[in-house]
Each structure stands twice: as structure tokens, then as C-alpha cells.
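ok so heres the complex, two chains, lmk if somethin looks off
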Amino acid sequence: MKYVYGFNEGDATMKDLLGGKGANLAEMTRMGLPVPQGFTITTEACLRYVRHRTMPKGLMDQVRESVADLEEQTGKVFGGEKDMLLLSVRSGAKFSMPGMMDTILNLGLNDRTVEDLAKATSDPRFAYDSYRRFIQMFGDVVMEVEHEKFEAILLEVRESEGVKLDHEISIEGLKRVISEYQALLKGLGREFPQDPWVQLRMSVEAVFGSWDNPRAITYRRLNKIPDDLGTAVNVQMMVFGNMGMASATGVAFTRNPATGEKEYYGEYLINAQGEDVVAGIRTPIPLENLDKDMKKVFLDLKKVFERLEKHFTDMQDFEFTVENGTLFILQTRNGKRTPQAAVKIAVDMADEGLIDRNTAIARVIPEQLETLLHRQIDPDIDVEPIATGLSASPGAASGAVVFNADDSVKWRDDGKKTLLVRIETRPDDIHGFDASEGILTATGGMTSHAAVVARSMGKPCVAGAEAVRIDYAERRMTIGDQVIEEGDLITIDGTKGEVMLGELPMVEAEISGDLERFLSWADAVRRLGVRANADTPEGARQALRFGAEGIGLCRTERMFNAPDRLPFVVAMILADDQTARKPILEKLFEMQRSDFFEIFTIMGTRPVTVRLLDPPLHEFMPSRSGLARELELLRTAKTMAKVNGDISTEMLTDELIEEIAGEGLERVDIMIEQRANMLEKMKDLFEVNPMLGHRGVRLGITHPDIYEMQIRAIAYAVAELIKAGKKPNVEIMVPQVAIVEELRIIRDIVAKVLLEVSDEYGFALPIRYGTMIEVVRACLIADQIASKVEFFSFGTNDLTQATFSFSREDAEGKFLPAYEVLELVKGNPFSTLDGEGVADLMRIAVERGRSTSPELKVGICGEHGGDPDSIRIVHGIGLDYVSCSPFRIPIARLAAARAALELE
Amino acid sequence: MKYVYGFNEGDATMKDLLGGKGANLAEMTRMGLPVPQGFTITTEACLRYVRHRTMPKGLMDQVRESVADLEEQTGKVFGGEKDMLLLSVRSGAKFSMPGMMDTILNLGLNDRTVEDLAKATSDPRFAYDSYRRFIQMFGDVVMEVEHEKFEAILLEVRESEGVKLDHEISIEGLKRVISEYQALLKGLGREFPQDPWVQLRMSVEAVFGSWDNPRAITYRRLNKIPDDLGTAVNVQMMVFGNMGMASATGVAFTRNPATGEKEYYGEYLINAQGEDVVAGIRTPIPLENLDKDMKKVFLDLKKVFERLEKHFTDMQDFEFTVENGTLFILQTRNGKRTPQAAVKIAVDMADEGLIDRNTAIARVIPEQLETLLHRQIDPDIDVEPIATGLSASPGAASGAVVFNADDSVKWRDDGKKTLLVRIETRPDDIHGFDASEGILTATGGMTSHAAVVARSMGKPCVAGAEAVRIDYAERRMTIGDQVIEEGDLITIDGTKGEVMLGELPMVEAEISGDLERFLSWADAVRRLGVRANADTPEGARQALRFGAEGIGLCRTERMFNAPDRLPFVVAMILADDQTARKPILEKLFEMQRSDFFEIFTIMGTRPVTVRLLDPPLHEFMPSRSGLARELELLRTAKTMAKVNGDISTEMLTDELIEEIAGEGLERVDIMIEQRANMLEKMKDLFEVNPMLGHRGVRLGITHPDIYEMQIRAIAYAVAELIKAGKKPNVEIMVPQVAIVEELRIIRDIVAKVLLEVSDEYGFALPIRYGTMIEVVRACLIADQIASKVEFFSFGTNDLTQATFSFSREDAEGKFLPAYEVLELVKGNPFSTLDGEGVADLMRIAVERGRSTSPELKVGICGEHGGDPDSIRIVHGIGLDYVSCSPFRIPIARLAAARAALELE
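and the predicted structre for the whole thing:
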């Protein structure tokens, strides 16, 4: 078994075996770039080590051979006296992985060779400093002694010599450090090995072992990197940037990783080793200065820039060292970049002809676009958050703290920007969402009311910031000792889930320039249509700005929740029968018609899919426990009033006191009766499992007048637009269908209404009829369903719940985190579509649906529609479009393009 | 198109075309039995009429031809003067159908022919009475004039003549009735037609039209009879049982339809027409008396008995008429019979060699067995119920009313039988179920706690008897004006959902004699195994008595609910972590081990499938709103005590007053704190959709120590039995599995525990490992799941909920009734398996599961397992066994046999 490859034996394609760093070192060797020679121990060797906890048989023999080759190539001797070969040992997995053991430099030095080195280089400072560094690194990463213990020794020596910086320490001082380091290790029972071969062997083992350290495992889990890759180990001849003023070390990017500009970007230090750049003790010099410091090296470096980019056809991030005026490249890799830079580099490289447009599309990860689409806190600002919560809705916002929705509106009307802070929010807070810049809640998860509404409105939201304690009565919140009063300014970052004090500077988002061109390339490639979920005119406009081709989900219940409508909705629910509901529905009809008219007008000829009322009615009602509590308080107040002769306000809430308005017991009696009545009615609405209850089409079947009102509102809006010469493109969608006959009954209502409205206007209304596919049974009988509708739209949130038999709300708060930790699920199935169960049902539904109706249009709406991995799956299933929240439209456009490129 | 068949043209196989009655009349004609001749108009003609609302072209021509044939055969003339042919017209669908127009007799009479008839028969009374009857029947059923209007005229004439009975009316009186009948019809604009052909045509149309009358439609819906069968019309020569003392009319059964005994059974009236027997004015004479009254006819009739049974090989119910000493058979059909008779007749006929055993099996409808298996109220007793509710759990019970579970126990210990009456029940009432004879609740549906627990324990239960008002404080219930105090005796009939006053006599159930033999025949035929759902030793014994081959579902949570365990379960739930839970689990372990030991002992070598804990933990906790209410009351009491200086007990409940026990405010403070703490903990347990929450294997994953305790209890019980030389046959079943890894994690626990216990005892524990398949995703990944388990058991209640996305509890209380009325569902999918969606998923699961593991054993547990239609479906899917409540075991045995006979 070959475990060791010389750099001259490999190439860039061998990343699986040699790791990313090793493969690129080999590739650069092939290119003839000045790479310090060395060899790579394979990932295979690592895996064997991890599996058996012992070095693979024959490995060290191969290492010895390779060291011998290296000695031959370089004319130096490992552990030798003159021209001694010192080595660096670095880990190098297929994917760059923080948390693993990284680097050991100067390996080969010991108490004897350090003196040889001092003589050979005539630079004892250099030699003893190198040795000191080596022991410290080796002690830290191989022998696992805390870094602080070495620093303490250094500090003590610096103090005793009265100097401030390490490189000011005298040679004698360095010798003292070295001996105290060794004493430290010995004292801990971990003697520093003098034998270079032992040093090498232990270093290789340490790299192997670090594959399985907890930080590395966590990183792999978070980044979905498989556990069975292993890491390679690169053993390389040391070159020294700290050999004097003709030596230097630095890092360089072939383009600016922050902006994407094509410019020489990087920094260096004269007379330094790599770790000095990282340690931040000396301030590195910008790369363009190298032109002055080392003219020839700079010219060599420019050539390296050209050759690396041309060869790897991507922006490179490389390390270099100049040893006595000679340039060495120590490693190169594709450089990490900001989202903005990712887009610019991809577009520029395509324009330069370095890559084609499809490759450009593959260069940007869809999720990266997210931060480009929301207002952000100026990235140059660095402020500590005072609290953290869930990243419930992305974007950043600043404003004055208010604690209820009415105040948001009041303050907004006074021209003030507010942030709405609540323990949790409810439908009757919705006007506060609209009036404030963002929302912060102390409780609630990713699907809490606050989170869902904020996302759909594109308002930044941090939810479930548990450290936040809110006192509504005192209009005050506290975070630890920090007290924030109403009106104090705070900033939230919904992308990161952070809360900061004060108003921070922001950077606005827009789709223009490079991003616009980039997305147009994606549009040209993708097969999936991209629509938006939008319930309001603002949402529709936002969707268009981000490139939506239509609205795939317009939820009518969001309109119901508006503060001017909610009282009518409540009245509608409390009405005993159709007769009582009729006048209320008339009012709601007028409101919905004008809502629809506005949204259809904005969307022009693009399709708009309107979903009929979906949630159970009790969702629109005030909280039962709140009502019950008020009732209890009022009754107690009454009882006590009998004793005291007066209404004691001591235990009443502000709202109740206000409502009593000093009118006395009669008023209290009325309030008691009104609340008792409402509670009684709400008993009928109570459901044990609201998710599986009386909602969607089931509501439409038992309350056909509500659906008819909505259908009528849609029909009139369409008719008015046609009359005005427009061409609205509207689809009516029925939610929660499980039984084919449900669709027939609602279709009869649609047909009746359309006929009536057509007759009134004298022209036909081209409104299509379709259904959500969000119930398991609907997937199974999709062949029957397809005969009743013109389109399907998957509701994969509900479908996921039904397929797993766990509700999102309950799962995310309870066992799903444990499931993710135990790796029972590959990520949260509510974020990324379950590729086995749910996708299988979808495949069945598409197959059966199209068996009846080959031209059936099939889409997906809901959060999965904006998730790149899910988009890849639904592309594979053969859907026609995805629909997602406006802010995820660009992500979906890119993800759809990448799916098309990868799967076809 | 041939629409009309003479009786001599058809046979018994032509029921689709000629209806049941027509086909049997033809058959009897072929047999040479004395059938008054006639013809049948086909169901096809009816369907055309119903479709086009007009008589099919050519139909009346064919009728005329057939009447001509009839005239030729009989030598009589339709509408003629002497030897006039009078006709009867009767409907006759394929299935007997109440609610349809039935019979018109004496058709052909009019003002002229009645006089001819009077002359020809020399019996004017007979003639005018026949005419009077004809007009009345015709007016009622053809012309749709209320029956009461005719009766009023009859009454008036009787009164004016001073007689009491119709046949005492004078000839003149009859003539007056006739003319007033005709005047009545004319006055309503519906003149009585004198033309016999018009009479015939209108009668046929009336029969056709009655196919679509609301009562007939409702009947078809209830009995699952298709709407597109239509009815035939039988036109038959009249024969007269009312021609004097040598004439008679009667009905006969070839065996006793109540007991099944082989004896001459029936009754007759001398000198009467058929309707007189039905009308109940004269008391018919038992058939055995005919031997004395009409010796020759009796001998003829005996031959008819023999021939009919031999020919039709089933018990026949037939009508006969004797006209002047000549016997005519008017119709025959398979006789309806009681469940008891059904079994006896089937067994006897097989013993007699009349039918084979498979035919015998097909002769008893499985549901019929239900009433044979529960104690019933003596069927001879006729008492009006004082209230009705849902038939929540079958069987009848009497006892003294008590209003709480503790009283049930107390009274039982005093040797008294009680009925537990509650507004609703909770898990902590379970000891009351055990102690009482039956349960009555005022609220709750078929899946309420009371209903489910009662069914599983085989206790009669009437649930949701809404008229019952319960006052716990006064220990009293009222139903309307009726007041029932604690200790008063009542009887409930859980089969019918009725509540009666007093203690009624009962009839006990047992499986023996005919039923035992009958079921053993079914056992020989069926392919499906039949197991019981049983959670207690009593349940296990009951299951064995009813013939269960094992326990397919032993729910451990039922054991948790026992009153001696619930406090430990609550403590277990409230414990903060595994350390705190440990000592509590030790206690529960001891209890569960002895439970299992007892059940396994009873079941011997038969398989027992134990399901690990399934329901969410909060189900074991007291009600949150109850706790909150107590807290509120205690706090109010405290506040008021500050004002008054004394604890006012005015507003406290009895329980709270008792708990305070006069100890004052300190005690109240402790009670407040204790309740506040418990409420706080319960907040964490709250779930929005408990059905989709933290339960089943998800609980096992997050609380592995609870599952481990249960597994250990099972393992020790098995080990102890093996040690005692027994061969227990135990299976561990994991509920709610959605992800294959869940099974791996629990299997690791099982393996660990079994290894430990095996080591301790020194022998292997042959316990099998399997899973419920009740989550949609589990069906889809059944191929993966099958590699981890030895058996599947479908939980089709949960699977149905997930497939339809509606919860049983919420659906049955809200929209499911409307769905059944609108025919959106064919019956309640929670009672009978959904043959489309859910069955399709099951098919997928079985197919995929067996693709991995061809020998995989697959069963179904839960209510569908005892439903005959569902059993038929799962037989078709290829399951190995069903498991159902003990009382449905015999039904399942029969249904499984019938499925095997029908499908193979």
C-alpha cells in the first residue's frame, strides 16, 4: 500500500487521496512553481490510523524513503549538522477544516542541531528563536499542553529582561526559554523528544488524531462534511522568511476577497515566519509595497498571480515565503470571499473568458446571496451584541424600543422609527409589524407568529432572545443588568440573531450591476420557474424587484389579520349561521376585492395564485387563556367590591382599568358577560390538534359562504381589470385537499360565481382552478385529483409534518435538536426537503397526476421553495416552478440554475 | 329492447334485471309451485324512466302483450265483465328496500267492473271492499294523498253506522266510502282513473318514481346499496284470501327466524287479504293451527316448505294465499333472522348437508356476532330510554350511580355494583373503570378517554349523553325533569347508546355450542391470524376466551395509568434529569415486571407484542386549566384573607377546603407554591399538536432510561418464565417510527439489556424486535426499516390521521359528520380503512418491506383490526394477522374467513 507521495508524483485531481493542500502542492510542482519540496502522507493512512488507533504498517518506512529522496533533492540532511533539513508538518484534508491540528514548523531541531543551525547560518538569534517556536508548537499541538503555560514563561523572561516584544529577547533569554519549556514538558511527564524521527512520527500521529477531535467533528457536522474522508499530512522542507531583511513571509489573494476587484491583494512581513503574520503582534505591510521592498520578488510574484489564476481558473489564496531573496510558494487554494466578491469574481472571470457562464453560476453558493438582499449592519462596524436569539427573519434594523403594536403606529405617525419588542406576538399585533422597522421577541421559535409574519413581510426579526426580560407595565426591558426603557435605540441583526445597543450604520441591498447580470445568466440556464409568496401589495412589489415571475402563493388569511379587518373576521366567526354571517361577509368581500385588485394590478400579466382561507378559525380569535384570566380578574374585583364597597384596581390590568373607565360595577358586569360569552363560543372552536383540524377546504365545505365570498372577491377584481383592458392571470387554489370530492364541491362554487360575474360583465373570466398538494392522501390519489384541476402546488411544510407525524412547532422546541445532534436526521426536514420520504410522496404525486393529465403544471410553495438543496430535489422530481418569500427569489433563481447544470 | 318478462321466462339468477322478487317468482314458476301468473317489468326500464322522466318507448306495448298472454293463460279478461282479471302491482329491487312504493292490489276495478265482480262472485261485500281498498291504496301511493284523509272518511262512516271495525261496515256504507274517496281525490284535482290501463300505467310509473324518493335514497345510503340498480315491477294476477272461510292469507318462515330452530313458523288469517295481517287489527293465528283449519292446504304447505329450502338452500320467508281451498305462493325470499338464528341455521344446514361449511360461513355477517358477545338487556324487556348518547362501548350494565372513581372503588369494596357517571373521564379515573360495571359520560365522542378505555376493558359505555346534567357537589344528575341521586339504580346499553332507569334483567354471552362450532369452521378457512389488543391480565384472559391466538398490542401506558402507579409516573415526568428519575424508574420497573410476568404467564406460548411507551408525557399529568383555576382560587382566597383576616371558603372547591384542612394561610402558601411549580413544569410539556408531538420513539430517544426500564421489565419477566420451564413468546414493538435510525438506537438499548439479563440468567432470551408502522414515512422507507426488525404492525388509526391530515378527535366532532352526509367519504375512515389512500400506503409498505425481508411478519393492531371491511382489505394486502379488542375477536375470525373465501 502506497501511503506517501512525493510532490512530484501527484496533481490537483488527487484531492481525495492527498487532501486539498497536498494536491495543490503537487500541481504547483508540476507547473514548475517554486514550491519547497516535500511529500504527502495520504488520507488513506489517516483513516487506517483513526480506525485502528495505530500507525499503518510500513508507513514510517515509506516516510523514511521520502525523507531520503528529499535529502537527495535538496542536498540537505534531516537531523544533520550542516545544511540541515528542517521540516514543516501540516494537515490537509480534502476540504479546509478549522479545528484540526494545523502546522508544526522547524521540525528536526533539538538541543544539538540548534547549535549547528546557529553556526551554519551565523545567526544564533534565528536558530534559538526557531527552536523556541518549534518546542512551543510541538508542546501545544502534539503534546497537548496549554498554550498559556508557554506564554507565561515567555512573559516572565520578557519581564526579567525588561523588554516588551518576543523578538527583543536576548539569545541568552531565548536559551532560558528553551530550557524552561523543556522543564515544563518534563514536569508534566511529557518529555520533549530530541530524536527528529520521533518528532516527525509524533507530529504525523498528532495530525491523524486531530481528525477526530471534538472541534473537527462539530465543524464537519455543521458543514455536512462526511466523517470518512480523513486528512492527509504534508511534510515539506522548511524555508525561512526570518533569515534577515532579504527574507519575508506573506499571504496573497489573486483578487480582492472582500470586493472582488482584480488587484494585488495581500500582506507580508519582512524577516518573519508565517505565524507572526497571524499573531498580530507586528502589523503586516500591504502587498503593493513589496514593489519597493523587493523589486525582483515582486515581479516573480506577479507572474505567480497570473499563472495561478490561469491554471486554477479561480481566485487563489496562497502563502509565500522569501528566503534570502528567493520566492517560495508554500500552498495555494481557492480563496474564500465575501458574497459580494463571489458574484463580482464570477462575472469578471466569465467576462475575461477565464471561465464560461455556467462555471460562473457554479462559483456562487446560493445562500451567499442572502446577505446581499437585506439591509445589513455596515460590515466595518464591530459591536458586541447584548443578547442573541434566533435568526428569525434576515436583515438589520434600528429603532426606538416600543412594547406594543399600537405604540409602533403612534410613534411611526409621529415620524419615529421603532423596533417592536414583545414577549411573543399575536395576529392582532400585525399593524405593529407594519409600523415598525423590525421585531424582537423574548420567546418563540423559527415558526412563531413573529418569525413567520416578519419573514413574509421582509421585516428583520430576532425571535426567542431568552435573555430579554420584558415588563410591559413599566415599559422596560432588561438584559442581565442592562435596562432599556421605551424609546431607547437598539439595533437588531435578524441575519445573525443579534441585538445591539444604539443605532448602527447600515448598508442597503439592491439587485443591480454584477448581481443583476449574474442572475440573468442563471435565468437563462434554469428550467424551474421562480415565483414569490406574497400576500400584500408591498410583498408583490418586492417580489418583482427581486425578479419573481409571478406569485405562487397569495395567502388570503394575511389580509384577514389586518387590524381594520380582524374585528369583522371575529364577528364572522362568532356568527351563528349563514344568515348572521351574510352582512359581515359583504364587508369582508369589499375589502378583499380591493386587496386582490391592487395585487393583480401590480403583477400585470404574471400568474397570481390565490389560496382560499386555510387556517382554523380560532387562529383569528384572542387568546383563550387571556380571556379566562381577564374573566377571573373581573369576577374577583366584583367579589371584592362587594366586601369593600369599591372596585379595587390593585389586581386589574391597565387595559381592564381603562375599559372600566370609572363606570363602576355595572360596567364590570357587562364586561364579565361579554367575555363569558366569547369564551363559551370559543369552546366550540377548540381543537386538540389544530394542525389536523377544521381548516382549509374542510372549512370551505362546512362554511361555503366564506369561500364563496373570497371567490367572488377574486372574480370581481379580475373582471374589473379585464374591463380596464388588462390581462390578469389569476389562479384559485384550494388548500388541504385529501378527497377528490372536496375539489368537486368547491369547483361547483367557483363555476357558479364565475358564471354570475361573467354574465354581469359580459365576458369570460379566464381564472384557473388548482389545489395545494399538502396532504399525504392527495399525493396518493393524485391521478383522480388531476382530473379536477389545472395545477398542483405542493405545500411541503404540512406534507413534511404529516409524513413524519411530527409538527414543526412541537418538534423544533422539543426533540428535533436532539435528533440533529444524534444525526437521526440530516438537517432539519422543515428547512431542507426530506429526500427520502417526502420527496418520494411528491414523486408519486407528480407521476400519478401527470398520468391523468400530462400537461399538469406543478409547483411548490412554502419555505422549501427557497432552499437550494430542496430546489435541487424538486428539479429532479420534474416540477415546473418554485415559489418562495421575496427575499429568497434571487437565491432560488441561482439554485434552480445550478440544479439544471448539475442534474442535466 | 325487451322490458317485460313473463314469470315463465326468467329464473333466480336474473335478480339484476328482474329484481329479487321477480326472479324468485320466475324460479318458483319453473319449479312448478302454485304461483299466480304474471310478468315482471325490468329494472332497466325503471332506470330509463328515472333518467328521462318518461316511460321508455315500447314499454306499454310490451305490457299489453303480456297482459294478453296472461288473459290467455288464465282465461280471464283485464277490465272484462265476467272472469275478470284483477292485478297486483309490486315493486321488487335486487335488494329488499323499505321506503319504496310497495304494493297495489285489486287493480282493474272501477265503478263498472266492481258491479260485475259483485255479480260474478255473488259477494258484493267482497267486491266493494276490494274496490274500496284499491282506491285507497291507489290514492295513497300513486296519487300521493295522505293516508289519514282516507282513514278519516272510513272513521266517519263507521261512526255513522255505529260499528267499530272496517269489515262490519255495510255494503251501502262501503259504497258511500267509495264515492267519498273519489270525491276526495277529485277535490284535490287528482281524479281516480276508471280506465284499468291508465290505472296500470300510473301504478308502474309510481313504482319507478319511488326508486328516487328520499326515504329510498336514505336507505340505500345507509345500507351501501348503489343508486344505479333500479327496481323491477311485478304485475301478477290477483288471488283472494278474502273469498270466504275457505280462503286465507299468511306469511311463513321455513325455520324460526328468532331462534333458528327447524320448525314450521308463521301465521295466517282466515278470510283476509295480506294487508290485514300487517295492519294488526285482527290477531293472526300461529301456522301450526292450519293443520286443523285446512288440512289439505297444510299438507300442500309442508311440501312447499321442503321444496323451497331444498331449492334455495336457505331459510325462506314467503307469503301465501288460499283462495277457496287452493294454495298460492305469492313471493319468497331469504328470511331475515336474528344473529343467534343466523348462526344456528348456518350450522344446522351444513350438518343437514344442505350447504357446505364455506357457504355456512358466508351466511353470517360478522357484525351480527357483536350482540352475541356482550351481556345484553333481556330482549323481551321493552323499556323507554331516559337519555341517549353514543354507543361508545358495547354491552349492557346496571348499577348504582356514583360520581367519582374513588366512590366506585369504595362501593365495590362494600359489595355494591356501581355505574360511574362523569361529565368526562381522565387517566386518574381509571381505577373507577375497573371498579364499576359501566361508564356514562355527558360529553365526549367515540374516541374520548372514557370510550377508548371502556372499549379496551370491555366495559359497557355510553358517552356524550348530552341531556345528562351532572352536579358533582350535590352528587346528583338530572335528565330533563328526572333527578337521579347517588345510589339510584340505572342501566346503560352501550350497544345502543341508551340509558334506562332501574336495574333491568340481562342475558349473558358465551361462545359455545353452535357458535363455537361455527367459529371453528371459520378458523379452518381463514389465512389471517387473529390476535387481541389487551393491556391487563383480565384483558388477556378475555382474549383467550374469545379465541385470540396471541396479543398483538399490549399497551404499557395502560399500566402506567393504574392509580397505584400514576403518582410515580407523574414524579418520573417532573424529575429534572436521569439521576432524579432513576429511583422512580426502579419502582416502576418492579411494577411493570410483575404486570408482564402475569400477562405472559396467561398467554403461555402464544405471541405477546408489547409496545413501548407511546403517548406524550403530559397525558399523564393533571389538567393544566384545572391547576390554573385552583391556583387562581387559592390566590384570591389569600388576597381576601388579607382584607377579611380570615380564609373565606365561599369560593373554594370542596377538594381545596379539604386540603387546607383548617390549617390557615401557611398551608395555602404551600399549596400555591406547589401548584405554581407544577404548572411551570407543565409549560415545558405543552404541545400545540400533541398527536404530532413528543411521543412514541421520539420520547424513547430523548428519555432512553424510560424505554430501558420497560425493556428490562420485559426481559426479566421472560427470563423468570424461562427459568420456570415455560416458553414465553414475546415481541418488543417500537411506536411512531419515522426514521430508520430511531430503530437502530432503540435496538442498541434492547440488545444491551437482553445481553445483561441473559448473562445474569445464563440462557438466551428469544425476544423479537419490531415496529409499529403508523407514520407515513415509515411506509415509504419500509425497505430500510425491514432490515432492522423482525415484524411490522400497522397502526392504522394514526396512519389514517396522517394520511388525511385530520385528527380523529377533531374530525369526528367537527366536519366528519358533514362529510358523511355530503358523501365525501364512504363511511368514517377511522371505522373502516380507507381503501384508496391508507390502503395504498400499506401496500407500498408491505411491498417494500418484503422486498428486503421476504419472510417479514406483518400485522395490524387498532380498531380497524376488528372491522370486517377493513379485514377484507388487509387480507388483500397480504398481512399475516389482525389484532383487535377481545370482544371483536370472533367477528375478526369470521371476517377473516369470509375474506379468504371471497378473495381466493
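quick notes: DSSP finds 37 helices and 33 strands in chain A. thats all i got rn
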